[in-house]
Amino acid sequence: PEPADLREPEIRFTPPAGESGGFSFVATDASGVDWRTLRVTADGKDVTAALVRTGDRVSLPKPSAPWAKGLHKVVIRVADAVENLAESEKFFFFGPRPSGVPDCRLRKDGTALVDGRPFFPIGVYGVGKREFNAYDFDRACADLKAGGFNLVQSYSDNDNPAFFAAARQHGLMTWCEFRSPEKKEFTGFQRGDASCLARYTGDDTAEYFSPSVMLDRHENAKALDPGRLTCQADPILNKNSLRSRYRDYVKCTDVFMPEIYPIHDDDAKTASNCVARVVRDMDLACRDIAAAKDSAPHGLWPIIQYFKGWGWKRFPPAEELYGMSFASIIHGAQGITWYTYGGFVNPEKKKFNYGV
Description:
Helices cover 21% and strands 28% of the residues. The chain has 6 helices and 22 strands. It has helices at 137-146, 161-169, 205-208, 211-224, 268-292, 318-330, and strands spanning 10-14, 24-28, 33-42, 45-46, 52-54, 57-59, 70-80, 85-94, 104-106, 112-114, 117-119, 122-124, 151-152, 173-177, 196-203, 229-234, 255-260, 299-300, 303-305, 336-339, 345-346, 351-352. Strand 13, helix 2 and strand 14 form a beta-alpha-beta unit. The longest helix is centred in the last third of the chain and has 25 residues, at 268-292. The protein is globular, with a radius of gyration of 22 Å. The relative contact order is 0.12. The mean pLDDT is 94.
């Protein structure tokens, strides 16, 4: 059975079409929306009295003055009939768009298209300067390109132009962290970076962010940096749970990256179950997408375990790695990534974590 309604209303926002145009949004909820609680501000000014509601859609027909160039913020507060409160932050932007940025979108079947051409992501997490690449991004990206990768990500150097320059130099695309549009991501180099395939809006998502926060990030990324995909990563099941963590988040990104790390223990059961775990998780994700009945396409880029450490007892050997990787593709993946590029070994702190 479905749990009681613990979710705040879902708010889908449509930015103004022009500098003299109004905005609109649709608010829906399983328990019904309590419209008496609605409060909306635009750039800090309360505009609630000027709103017009028709059913679930609410509009600001026209701003009191044309929108200025730059970033604009709309805050929508509304509760449902059982007092779950949504506080949604939606952004839009007027001004010149970056040039030279490829058009990245999903085909109806979830395949990524880059300037209209199909692209199958083959990616790796956590690229950084390490002893095995002579602490050099150019060497790291050259090695990865030679190894067949076409997509890279960095935690430590997400804001480092040198990482993205090396990726471009070697024909690699990137996925870039995105949180708040008010941070420098939309005023700095990343906004016009031609390597960026997707905005990474959540990591271990359900652990930290509600569906409404993730939907805001998705819509804001689309409004402010069009031509990119959005993606998020999460384990699809909690331990001993049969309910998918992805189910409530399907509409919150273009792409879901299920974290599939089944080689936790060094025993016979783990060895015999690792491919079956991949099949189970991929099938769950596909069913979640079908159940969402969303008009927008959705893709799956699973993250397959290729590490030892962080509590996981061993690497998958070649046979397991091959079986898990191809099982994920057979069961619905339109791309694939592996975690992680390099671990971090610190004997003094008894940390022994290893990557690809």
